[in-house]
Design brief:
This protein is of the alpha+beta class. It folds into 2 domains: about 100 residues; about 70 residues, no CATH class. Helices cover about 60% and strands about 10% of the residues. It has 5 helices and 4 strands. The strands form 2 sheets. It has a two-stranded antiparallel sheet with strand order 1-2. A two-stranded antiparallel ribbon has the order 3-4. Helix 1 packs parallel to helix 3 and helix 2 runs antiparallel to helix 3. The chain starts with a helix and ends with a strand.
Length: about 180
Amino acid sequence: MEDLKAVLDLLDYELSALKQQYDLFFQGGRRGEPTRERKELEGRILALSRRSIINTTDQLRFSNIQGRYWSYSNLWTRTVRDLEEGRLRRDATGMLTRLGTEKPAVKDPVDSGHIDRVAQELLEARRTCGLSGDPAELAALRESLASRAKEISASSGGKKVEFRVSIEEGKPKVKASLS
């Protein structure tokens, strides 16, 4: 009984180590696929699957480890096949990217005239609320809105961004929406 628990602990550890090796391989940190380690672990899992496990807790744990292994194995096989067939490629950082899924970046996620209007509206809203509304801050506001628009556009897949100014609870707020 105690022997089976140790075997399951070892299998769980080896599966985690194998997953780590494949992660390194897919990230470009390892030259070759860890096939030898994978075959050894698969052999141990297949040998243990032929053995009768009486304790239901150990049986459930082994089924969990076995299921994770086969799920990872299918994922690794598909990913390596896609890499070999050219559906995946490594980018400059070594990470894998699927071809055809890159979204074209929007050159100008927000109209410069729109940024000017929103910056002016924000200054007016600040003055209305009794806060500083110095026109000297206009350039910094435009720059801040433009950089925020780029961030929002990049995280939304390159969509256009529109801002609107509102006053909530006595404070000016700038809200972004995608179009």
